[in-house]
UniProtKB/TrEMBL annotation:
Gene3D superfamilies attached to this UniProt entry: 2.40.30.20, Photosystem I PsaA/PsaB (1.20.1130.10)
All residue ranges annotated as the ATPase F1/V1/A1 complex alpha/beta subunit N-terminal domain in the record: 27-93
Segments traversing the membrane: 248-269, 318-338
Entry's Gene Ontology BP terms: photosynthesis
Highest taxon of source: Eukaryota
GO molecular function, one term: proton-transporting ATP synthase activity, rotational mechanism
Family: Belongs to the ATPase alpha/beta chains family.
Name of the protein in question: ATPase F1/V1/A1 complex alpha/beta subunit N-terminal domain-containing protein
Organism, as annotated: Setaria italica
Length: 339
């Protein structure tokens, strides 16, 4: 029978006691009282900050934007279909941030800066606060450096400087998207390009991505890496449209602070104006007659866009053609609805 050695047991116990680390913390936890239209109302989060990130039990995240005396309004960064009344919400103690990194070059991301191109996760090098102080007036200077687009007609007749905003307007089928795509692929100055497809028609989006992938990798090997974002998650899906704009801006600011020029392309200013003016109307429109079909098409648009293969004979699968047919049915029905 083995004998117990008291001195060894004493040493083991002392070592375990020295290594014991008891972490004590206070968590700010609330409860859901109402959820709908991308907004959740929470009670119990008395110490929450404006713009703070919160996490729901089922994994959805949100941003606290409306602080009232009895409840807090949370903008959901997701559909929120699994959030139930009475479920718990935990404040993270962190203000909403956007991840930025050089790894975003050449990637297709959604409104939350998550990759949707099937090429693996993106490891960000740093992050920036969404509500961060603007650059001071002293650090700014007037436009002094020209932007060479590589298009003779524009460079010779329309002077564009770095730091300016240009609006490309015109009737339908006049080459506005083709002009923007030419700027992305043209032999002009080396710039980081961000193409924000907020409100862009799905078929146009497929063509733009195909041009970037095909011509950019074959004809312009030195410009094959483009940063371009895809649309927000669509109407009726919370505050992801807001996040899309913030994400695009701070990804561009990342390059500016690293002394690299950048150009951001926005399509369809009509939708952007609507999104900036009254996002609640944009969400409520999903309850119209054909809103359910539109939401379904938005949910599945990324699979169709990423499945586009410009080099194959059968570029679009049968499912993709069904998607386009459904998109045509919705568009036709919408025209009859408003006519």
């Amino acid at each position: 029978m083995a004998t117990l050695r008291v001195d060894e047991i004493n040493k083991i116990l002392c070592k375990r006691i020295e290594q014991f680390n008891r972490k004590v913390g206070i968590e700010n936890i609330g409860r859901v009282v109402q959820v709908g239209d991308g907004i959740a109302h929470i009670i119990g989060l008395g110490e929450i900050m404006s713009g703070e990130l919160v996490k729901f039990v089922e994994g959805t995240r949100g941003i606290a934007l409306n602080l009232e005396s009895k409840n807090v309004g949370i903008v959901l960064m997701g559909d929120g279909l699994m959030i139930q009344e009475g479920s718990f919400v935990k404040a993270t103690g962190r203000i909403a941030q956007i991840s930025v990194s050089e790894a975003y070059l050449g990637r297709v991301i959604n409104a939350l800066a998550k990759p949707i191109d099937g090429r693996g996760e993106i490891v960000p090098s740093e992050s920036r606060l969404i509500e961060s102080p603007a650059l001071g007036i002293i650090s700014m200077r007037s436009v002094y450096e020209p932007l060479q687009t590589g298009l003779i007609a524009i460079d010779s007749m329309i002077p564009i400087g770095r730091g300016q905003r240009e609006l490309i307007i015109g009737d339908r089928q006049t080459g506005k998207t083709a002009l923007a795509t030419s700027l992305l692929l043209g032999p002009g100055d080396f710039l980081v390009h961000h193409a924000i497809a907020l409100g862009l028609h799905t078929t146009t989006l497929i063509l733009v991505k195909g041009a970037l992938d095909a011509r950019g990798s074959k004809l312009m090997p030195d410009k094959k890496d483009f940063g371009y974002s895809f649309p927000c998650d669509g109407p009726g899906h919370g505050g992801t449209c807001d996040i899309s704009a913030w994400d695009a801006f701070y990804l561009a600011v990342f390059w500016m602070l690293n002394t690299v020029g950048w150009v951001t392309f926005y399509w369809h200013w009509k939708h952007i104006t609507l999104w900036q003016g009254n996002i609640s109307q944009f969400n409520e429109s999903s309850t119209y007659l054909m809103g359910w079909l539109r939401d379904y098409l938005w949910l599945n648009s990324s699979q169709l866009i990423n499945g586009y293969n410009p080099f194959g004979m059968n570029s679009l699968s049968v499912w993709a053609w069904m998607f386009l047919f459904g998109h045509l049915v919705w568009a036709t029905g919408f025209m009859f609805l408003i006519s």
